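so my prof wants the structure for this chain in the tokens format not the other one, which i didnt know existed until like an hour ago. anyway here's the sequence
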Amino acid sequence: MRFNHFSKFNPNENSKSTFENLLNIFMQLLTYTSGDVGEALSWLTELDKEYNLTNDEYGMGDFIEDLKDKGYIDENKQNGEIKITPKTEQGIRKRSLEEIFGKLKKTRSGNHNTFKPGGGDEINPETRPFQFGDTLEQIDFTESIRNAQINHGTESFMMHEDDLEIRETDFKAQTSTVLMIDISHSMILYGEDRITPAKKVAMALSELITTKYPKDTIDIVVFGNDAWTVEIKDLPYLQVGPYHTNTVAGLELAMDILRRRKNPNKQIFMITDGKPTCLKVGKRYYKNSFGVDRRILNRCLNLAAQCKKLKIPITTFMIASDPYLQKFVTEFTETNNGKAFFASLDRLGAFIFKDFESGKRKTVY
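here's what i got, hopefully its the right format
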């Protein structure tokens, strides 16, 4: 007879330690402060005063010492400057990945993803009978021999075509991705922080690709008045500058990067909240922040058409709702034959990850 043992419920059992709870908040604050440890600890101290995050046995001083001892922060003994370590940088990326994937898991209902089999590099658990045209490498000999024994006995072993079982594989496309992030001043205008969600998505996507799809490549391009690449490890420190939006420079750099990639599948993801307002003509900047400038727009559309010829789709994630800006994105997308998502800040990660994952599996005939 089976018995069930009941015990008194203890809400603190298996709960996280004070250090772990503080570390989680500290990691989140570092993203908002662009890696500024001093500012993050100041905010955390204010939160502690408001919400009693620490207690008489474990205070903020203990937490700071633990951060040093566990290798999360490093203090320069000469000038007293405190910086985060590579361990913390990776921790922020992992937490961003977990945060975004957590949202995806909660919003699965209504999805109808189908993965069709074909020749590729990931084994499918299901088998099927042999068909004319199947290759020798696809035969599952264990199942085929088992079928032959069942169908013809073990005394006079023989194998017929009807005994053969085929183990199919799913093809996972190797992809080179460039993620473009708008760091113009408008990303923090009107009291709305748009750069932090963009950074979280960039960190999460880079962590996903480097860990789950090591054969893929990802490059991060930021664009303001100009465009330049940033390393994955530098993402937590990314800040908005006093820049206009030179989308042309970002696209030109992204295309140049993808030309050097050997993967046949290439794509550009662009996160922006506004219209292109800047263009570099020779050594000077041509700027116009009032409405959509036709001269700048035409250069953007020309690059979108070039990407289409090179079979580089551009997926634009627009985090603004102005009708005339949406009109620009629609025209840009139609020229490239790409895709556009008008995403709210809290759903930006879900949009990007679903689009990326949907393109990872292709059917090969």
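also thought this was worth mentioning. The two ends are 56 Å apart (CA to CA).
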